[in-house]
Amino acid sequence: MKSFFEGIADLFVNVIFKYTMDPFRFAESWTLSNIVNWLFMLIGTAAFIYWMLELKKYNDKGDEDSTSTSHSYL
């Protein structure tokens, strides 16, 4: 069973990540080296903006019951 997990680790470390990330690792430019980070930040920012706009639409509809009848401490 141990060799199975070591095989999975070897596949990811020595095959998949090596050929996809080494060109970025040895790049001369800082920007090129960090392009993956920038892509993740852009995707995260877009997802955050989308989520906030969806929350605003839901809040503007007024569908939520905000009365304090369910709990006395509200």
Automatic annotation (TrEMBL):
Membrane-spanning ranges:
35-53
Which key words are in the record?
Membrane, Transmembrane, Transmembrane helix
Entry annotated with the keyword Membrane? yes
**Cited InterPro entries:** DUF6341 (IPR045922)
- Pfam families membership: DUF6341 (PF19868)
Provide the protein name. Answer: Uracil phosphoribosyltransferase
The record lists the organism as Maribacter sedimenticola
